[in-house]
Design brief:
The chain is an alpha+beta fold. Helix content is 48%, strand content 12%. It contains 2 helices and 4 strands, in the order E-E-E-E-H-H. The protein has a 4-stranded antiparallel beta sheet, with helices on one face.
Length: 112
C-alpha cells in the first residue's frame, strides 16, 4: 500500500513554505518544502509501489503549489460574474455554478 504521511498543521500560518518539491532520495524519498525540510515521507518504495507513490506525491505537490493561485482565480471569477450579473439585473447569484464556486472556495479555505 502506498501511503504519504503528512506533516499535520492546524493553522495556515504554520504551513511549510512553498513551493514544495519531490525528493527522490533512495533512503528517504518524500515531499520537501521550499527550505528542503521534510513534509511527507513516501512509504512502499520498491518497484511499481514506488512508481505509484511518486506519482501520488507529484499530484500532491502540484495541488499544494497551485492551491493559492487557483483559489484566487476562482474568487476573482466568482466576484466578477456576480458583479456582472448584478449590474445587468441578470440574477443568478444562487444558480448551480455560483453555488458550486462558493462551495469549492469554502472547501479550499477549510470551512466545509
Amino acid at each position: 500500500m502506498n501511503t504519504a504521511v503528512p506533516f499535520d498543521h492546524e493553522f495556515r500560518e504554520v504551513e511549510s513554505p512553498l513551493p514544495w518539491h519531490i525528493d527522490r532520495d533512495d533512503k528517504h524519498p518524500g515531499i520537501r518544502d521550499a527550505h528542503n525540510n521534510p513534509v511527507a515521507a513516501l512509504i512502499s518504495i520498491r518497484g511499481e509501489d514506488r512508481v505509484m507513490a511518486e506519482a501520488n506525491a507529484e499530484l500532491i505537490v502540484r495541488a499544494v503549489n497551485a492551491h493559492d493561485a487557483l483559489l484566487n482565480a476562482l474568487r476573482l471569477l466568482h466576484d466578477n460574474l456576480a458583479e456582472y450579473q448584478r449590474l445587468n439585473n441578470l440574477g443568478g447569484y444562487d444558480n448551480h455554478d455560483m453555488v458550486a464556486a462558493r462551495d469549492a472556495i469554502a472547501k479550499a479555505e477549510g470551512r466545509s
